[in-house]
Structures are given as C-alpha cells and as structure tokens.
Amino acid sequence: MAFSLSSSPSSSTFLLILFTCFLFLCNAQHYHRHPRFAHHNYRDALTKSILFYEGQRSGRLPANQRLSWRRDSGLSDGLAMNVDLVGGYYDAGDNVKFGFPMAFTTTMLSWSVIEFGGLMKSELQNAKEAIRWATDYLLKATAHPDTIYVQVGDANKDHACWERPEDMDTPRTVYKIDKSTPGSDVAAETAAALAAASIVFRRSDPTYSKILLRRAMRVFQFADKYRGSYSDRLKPFVCPFYCSYSGYQDELLWGAAWLHRATRNPTYLSYIQMNGQTLGADEDDNTFCWDNKHVGARILLSKAFLVQKVQVLHDYKGHADNYICSLIPGKAQYTPGGLLYKMSDGNMQYVTSTSFLLLTYAKYLTYAHKVVTCDGTTLTPKSLRIIAKKQVDYLLGDNPLRMSYMVGYGPRYPKRIHHRGSSLPSIQSHPAKIQCSSGFSIMNSQSPNPNILFGAVVGGPNEHDQFPDQRSDYEQSEPSTYINAPLVGSLAYLAHSFGQL
Fold it and tell me: What is the pLDDT of residue 4?
C-alpha cells in the first residue's frame, strides 16, 4: 500500500507534486555531470569521511597511520577472558568497544564499497583498510563457536571519565553472548558484516574473503538457533548505550539477506521466504540505523528481484517503495532548512543512512527500468538522487548556519566535538598521563579541540536548524562510526557524478 499524507487523496497528490517540483527547481542547476556545477568538493569530503576511522582505531596502530595524534591503546583487551580482543573501533567519543554498532558500521562500510567502490579510485584502498580493521577484530570476537564477545569496557565507568584512549585505566571488562545468554541481534548483525565484507575482498583477497564468509555462515546459524535479544541478559552493561530496542527479528532477516547476496545459496532464499513475514518484512517501520535494519533489508532484497529477477522476492519492491513514499514531507519531518529529522540524539545517522538507501535504490531501479509510485505520482531514480544530494549538501554546508557538520570540511565546522581523544592534548604534545577526572575541566571549557578528527560527522542540528557547538551536548556534538559508514558510499557516487574522481 502507498502512504497517504491525509484523509484526502487529492491533497496527498498535491503535496507530493509540490515536493517533487521543489526538489527539481532547487537542485536542477547543480545536478549535472560537469564539475563546474558542483559547489561542494565531494572528493575531499569522501577522503575525510574515510580518514575519520583512523581516529577511532583501537589497538596497535600501523606505520601508515595518518592521524598522528593518536597512539596505541587497548593493548590488553580480552586478557581478562584469555582471549585476544585487541583492535577494532571505539564507537564514538568514548573508549568502549561496542560490538553491535561496530558490526553495523562494518556492514554499511562494506555496502558502500559494494555499490560504489568502483567509483572511489584512489580512496578504494583506504575504504578497504577501514573495513579490514573492523573485520580482523570481528574474526577475533567470533573465534569460539557459539560465542561472541560483544563488548570491551565497562561503559558506565568509562563514561564517568574524560580521558584519552591511550590513558584509559577504567575496567576493560569483556561481555559475551553464548547459548545460555543469546543475542540474535548482535550475532546476526555480525554475520551480516562478515558476509558483506566477504564480497568486498572477493577479488582482491579471495582467501580472506572465504574466511569471512565461512565465519558469517557459522555465526548466523548460532544467531538463528539460539534466539533472544542480547540486551535482555546484558541490560546493565549495554543499556542505555546500545539497547536492542527493535528486537532481533530485523537482524535475522538482514543477516539472511546478506548471506543470500554473498553466497547465492538457495538455503538463504528459502529462509527468507519462510521467515520473512514473521521477521517483520512488511512492517511499516521506516527507520534505518544501528538498531533497526527493516528498511535496509527491504532495499537489499529488492535488488534480488529488480536486478537478479528472483521473482519470489517481488514483494520487497513494494516494501521498498513504501519506504521511499514515507520520506515525503508531511509523512516525514524536515527542519525548516530541509534536513530530514528523526530524533534529537544523533539525527545525522538517519540522514546519512537515508541518503545512501536512496542512491542505492535509484541504482537498482535504473537497472530494472522501474520507478516508484506514491499516491499516483511517479518518482524516478533521478528524483531519488536529487533528494539524497539535497541531504548530503545540507550536511556539507547548505543550511541556515552555513556550517559543515563534517569536521575539517569547509570554512566553518564544529570545533568542540564530544570526543575525548580529539578534545584532550595529544600524547605528542602532553606525554604525561591525564587522569580520569582531570579531563573534565577541558570537556567543560569553551576552547576548541586541539586535535582535528578529520571527517567526523557529528549528531547535527536540532529540529530548528540550530547547533550550539558545545562539547557537553553529546546528542548534537558527538560523532560516531555508524554516521559516517553510509555517507562514504553517497560521497563516492556524488564525487563521480560531478567528475571529481
């Protein structure tokens, strides 16, 4: 069914027509393939969006580390459980390694490369290195059958400190899921991440790709066999930070969808056919983020129908279309400046994920010569690309404040981001240890962060397009790995479209 904006079909159609016309009028002058029409340097933004991940690295840093203000950290992670959990990423501005958002970040970085890696040119290798930094860790976290180590660090104690990752002395407690403490959500997301990454490395490193795929299959089997939400048993440790609010059904469908794409094994297609409805395939839930994969699964499975002609998945085209129609103003909320607005905490993650899905779905529709129909009005693939570009351009500075929400991009960007390593003096400039509570004087100050975390995209403005640029305001000023991950793909597409790559 198509979404309606009111009880009157005519008013729905009128609003949609107005919206479509507005997008074309406002963006047509910029939407050409010739570089002189691009008023943003998408290539520069792409480079920085990937560079950001070097600032989030945990573990022993490589010789080619470009963000030199970071140093080795977390070198004893996993020691308490006699397991090697060194490496991976800190999720945001803290020093905890949360497996759930890290796995989603990996899936989305991989999807960005799968769809648009061919356009990335010199940045492709950097993107692959960002993915491999995560998958190497996820392989460690899943080394033991029917067990996944899903978190390193006591989040409550970590958040009571403001210290560099190189200095952290809070407990590096390890939390795991297993047969008696199931976590289908984080397990299936981990399977999705490994499966998606296996596609990324299929040609460049086939041996590594096979290792990733075999592990993905094993992890998914564990996720499906021992069902339950990881935050049910681990609630005191993972909530309210990364509770699984949407349940685990969406991740099971998402994981199966990625394994189907990676293997073309009919077993996964049968699983999707048999379980799709019970796992929420047709739910009118139009949120896509680290916790909720319903929309992503719909778009991903629509490709199998549109491009690969898997007829039994024809319903997913309708499910994906419903999502596109839900983005119409009146159904979705936008700020006065035109930014998609879902919620106050880390809203930019919804902006970047939506933009990526729009560009990806437009790619599938173009291949299949299909369109989207919303209340009788047609949206072409070009329409979807215009909507996506408008959101990315807002993020890069086309907004009422004329501020880029990507650190280090453009003349004006957030200077006081909620990020410990960026806000405190580096080891190079201040070798002495900064104790747990000593850093709060800096956190609460108005001084700009001394270390520029290039490419970090913050939570973004509020519903009125306002942004205070305060370190204490984590909802608006904190970056995260999962905000950037889908943006990598969108920027690659835009940079290529405007002749910058």
Answer: 30
* Position 25 in a domain: yes
Q: How far apart are CA 314 and CA 279, in angstroms?
A: 17
In 3-state terms, what secondary structure has residue 56? coil
Give the separation between CA 199 and CA 187, rounded to whole angstroms.
Answer: 19
Please give the Cα distance from 368 to 323 (Å, whole number). Answer: 18
User: In terms of C-beta density within 10 A (0-12 exposed, 13-18 middle, 19 or more buried), how is residue 33 classed?
Assistant: exposed
Lowest mean pLDDT among 22-26, 27-31, 189-193, 425-429: 27-31
Question: What confidence tens digit (pLDDT) does each residue in 329-340 have?
Answer: 889 999 999 999
Task: Determine the Cα–Cα distance for residues 274 and 287; give it in Å rounded to an integer.
Answer: 24
CATH (domain of 31): 1.50.10.10
CA distance 197 to 454: 24
pLDDT of residue 37: 57
Q: Which domain holds residue 202?
A: 9-497
Is residue 251 within 8 A of residue 293, CB to CB? The reply is yes
Residue 159 counted as domain residue: yes
- Contact (CB, 8 A) for 421 and 469: no
Tell me the CB-side half-sphere exposure of residue 175, using CA atoms within 13 A. 25
Nearest to 205 by CA among 197, 216, 214: 197
At how many degrees (to 10) do helices 99-116 and 481-497 cross?
Answer: 10
Which long-range CB contacts under 8 A does 279-286 form with residues at least 24 apart?
279/249, 279/250, 279/252, 279/253, 280/249, 280/250, 280/253, 281/253, 281/315, 281/316, 281/319, 282/315, 282/319, 284/322, 284/326, 285/246, 286/322, 286/323, 286/326, 286/327, 286/332
Mean pLDDT of 476-500: 97
CB atoms within 10 A of CB 39: 12
Would you say residue 346 lies in a domain? yes
Rounded to the nearest 10 degrees, the angle between the axes of helix 481-497 and helix 381-396 is 120
Classify 153 as helix, strand or coil: coil
| Separation of alpha carbons 485 and 437, rounded Å | 32
Six-digit token pair at 372? Answer: 């989207």
Q: What is the dihedral of CA 452, 457, 460, 465, to 10 degrees?
A: 90
Give the total number of structural domains in the chain: 1
Q: Which residues are catalytic?
A: 418, 469, 478
| Residue 459 DSSP one-character state | -
Residue 63, domain member (yes or no): yes
Question: 176 pairs with which residues across the strands?
Answer: 149
- Cα 117 to Cα 113: distance, rounded to the nearest angstrom: 4
Q: In 10 A of CB 240, how many CB atoms?
A: 9
